[in-house]
Amino acid sequence: MADRVHPGNSPQLPQTTSSHAAANPSPRQGTYVIQIPKDQAPRLSPPENYRNYAHYTRRETRRCRFCCCLCWFISILLLLAVLLAAAAAVFYFVVRPKAPDYAIEGVAVKGMNLTSAALSPEFDVSVRAGNGNGKIGIYYEKGSSVEMLYDGAMLCNGALPAFYQPPNNVTVFETVLTGNGVELTASEKTALVKAVAQRSVPLTLKLRAPVKVKVGFVKTWKITVMVVCDVTVDQLTAQARIVNKDCSYGVDIL
């Protein structure tokens, strides 16, 4: 009698898989595979885009650094300006600087022969300089210039003496102004003769003097003082008397 073959005891045959299954093994449990059509797949940017991005990024970084440096520089300048303003305020309240005052005290004229074709005048001028500062001295340096003019025409010129003016001091110094071969136009000479006859001769004195200011032990750089005086005399002789005078002054710190 033939033996029965039970299904449970039958030998296991090897499982066969299709080529598709072998090429695409089943994903592991918990993972997902998403298939995207080729025409919808994301594309990588070309290499030149990366280079451009890196270039612009470096440029923006440099720009930010420049802006930071500029902000620091402006901040330092503002701080220096504040410190200078504070120092100037302290200097003003401690020293109390006052502007010097100038005036013409006397004028003596020689050699103004109005009948001559050319004039060789000499003006002896006394100038009063007042320094009303209690803590500031003034050094009048060499290199000054003084001119005497009539109606814009220069009659003579000269220079001031060099000297030191201490605080709270008034100094009257004399200077001799000379001219040689001065020729006036016919209209200028006619007007000058008329002014002498009316005993009112308008003249203009222009003065430029380099000075140094001393505060304590500190002496400043050279500062040019410019003085303009309108003075009217009654005659052009050694006995000339001042009828009217008015002086103004300015400073050139360069």
Automatic annotation (TrEMBL):
Which residue spans traverse the membrane?
A: 66-95
The source's domain of life comes to: Eukaryota
Key word Transcription regulation present: no
Task: List the GO biological process terms.
Answer: defense response to other organism
- The UniProt entry's coiled-coil ranges are none
Bias type Polar residues, positions: 9-28
Mode of membrane association:
Single-pass membrane protein
Q: Give me the ranges of the annotated region Disordered.
A: 1-28
Major localisation: membrane
Question: InterPro entries, alphabetically?
Answer: LEA_2 (IPR004864), NDR1-like (IPR044839)
Instruction: Give start and end of each Late embryogenesis abundant protein LEA-2 subgroup domain.
Output: 127-227
- The positions making up the signal sequence are none
Annotated localization: Membrane
Q: What are the UniProt keywords, alphabetically?
A: Membrane, Transmembrane, Transmembrane helix
Sorted alphabetically, the Gene Ontology cellular component annotations on this record are: plasma membrane
Keyword Iron attached: no
The protein depicted here goes by the name Late embryogenesis abundant protein LEA-2 subgroup domain-containing protein
What organism is the protein native to? Answer: Cajanus cajan
